[in-house]
Amino acid sequence: MSARAQPLPAGGPAAGAPAARAATARALAARGWRRLPRRALAWVAALAASLAVESALLFAALQAVPGDAATTLLGQNATPAELAATRHRLGLDEPAPVRYLRWIEGAVHGDLGASFQSGRPVAAVLAQPLLNSLVLAAAAFAAGAVLAVTSGLVTGLRPGSRTDTALSTASVAVLSTPVLVWASGACVVFAGLLGWLPAVSLPPFGGTPLARPVVLVLPAGTLALFGGAWAGRLIRAAVADAARLPHVEAARLAGLPRRRVLVRHLLPSALAPCAQALASMAALLVGGTAVVEQTFGYPGLGQLLVASVHDHDTPLTEGAALVVVALVTLGFAAADFSGLLADPRRGRRS
Length: 350
Fold this sequence. Notes:
This protein is mainly α and 350 residues long. 75% of the residues lie in helices and 0% in strands. The protein is built from 15 helices and no strands. It has helices spanning 13-34, 36-64, 69-74, 80-90, 96-108, 122-157, 162-176, 179-193, 217-243, 246-253, 258-287, 289-296, 301-310, 314-342, 346-349. Helix 9 runs antiparallel to helix 12 (289-296) and helix 12 crosses helix 13 (301-310). The two termini are 46 Å apart.
């Protein structure tokens, strides 16, 4: 006896194809969701390893810089006895490995030490500059996201067109030019020649940048220009790739309205890589604020980091760099998870 044949779906084999594809998609999505805890543990391990390597390399690099905090505090006219007493008070007379291990032990327990310059706890010194940098990065991200999504959609939907060529050329020009050049040019034009905006982006004394939003325009605009050009290139590629997918082509050939093809078929396919591009842009903006903050005199974490290196303030330098590395790593982790949340099936393929 032959095995009983399974009944065909109503409407023939073709009618069962969409149901089979839907079942496969649900199975892949379930596997993607189950990978979330494993992916989270991997990123926690990556963050811990990044912080450990960064702190060790930075500490070693700081030891190679000529001079020390005692000389910076007391000046060149200090006597050898005064320098020796100050080095003993700051613990600089101990071997470098001992100082590093002592700092690591405190950092693990949440104590980043005290600043050599002010004597205040490093965490307290970092609080306001960190808030200022986060405000700057958020403003730059908002403007950069609008620029990236707009340019990415316009160029990705019409690859090879004159608009695509013009915007792609402009993006390459922006990315090929150092941020310092754009920041200096914006300062000269909008602050010097036109006088529309302040050349120095100082918030009100004792306040936040939100109390005087005009100070954010030049630094945030410079970061948004660079970040938007970078993320826009990624979004363009994602949209162009999605437009060539078989189901998008089939919807277009079936005569569906252009808007429906875009909203129902193309954009959902490009959502995951676009979300990853924007999240990655956020991480780059946080990590790239130092040059812009120095150029415009903005009192953020990047400017504090540069000043602490100049002052040989090792605990403050280590603490500031640790925060920057943590934020950048968390930003790229958010990019990874945003892509997975937008399309859980990507977890299986990655």
